[in-house]
Amino acid sequence: MSDGLELLTNQQWGFDTNCFVCEPTNTSGLAIPFFHDVSNREVVADFVLDERFSGAPRYLHGGVITAVLDETMAWATIAIVHRFAMTRELHASYERPVRTGFGYHVRGRITAFEGDRIMASAEVTDHKDRSCARAEATFVVLGEAQVVDA
Predict the structure, then answer these.
(1) How confident is the model at residue 1, as a pLDDT?
(2) Is 88 exposed, middle or buried (0-12, 13-18, 19+ CB in 10 A)?
(3) CA distance 49 to 120
(4) Fewer CB within 10 Å: N-end or C-end of the chain?
């Protein structure tokens, strides 16, 4: 990760979590650290996942890849537009296998923010900057009581 990025943690927002994708203390999870790239208005992360998360013997399970894309976009709603939101709809496409034991990069952006809806996109790329998986999603902004409940 390059300099100038802000580490995103759940504790900085005043709550504890056991998030499968990002929480470093969840020993069953992915423990991917996410960063806010303020100058590029995106959320980014680098990750390497092992065979515990495979579908085929050497490829990550598609559901795990989707979870990474979804989490990237969710962090974008928090870091970029300062809203807590839940995924309403997500469309993902897979262009290249994401292999276990190899390094990948994910980035997410907000594409629109209208009323209580946030649209976002995310992409996983390999070390050659080739697209491996993409997603677009609609998020619904949570009300204050919903945030406390969640």
Answers:
(1) 47
(2) exposed
(3) 24
(4) C
Pick from 135, 95, 137, 93: nearest CA to 117? 137
What's the token pair of residue 43? 């959320």
pLDDT tens-place string over residues 46-71: 999 999 999 988 999 999 999 999 99
Nearest to 109 by CA among 25, 62, 43, 24: 43
Q: What is the mean pLDDT of residues 107-136?
A: 97
Q: Which two tokens stand for residue 18?
A: 């056991």
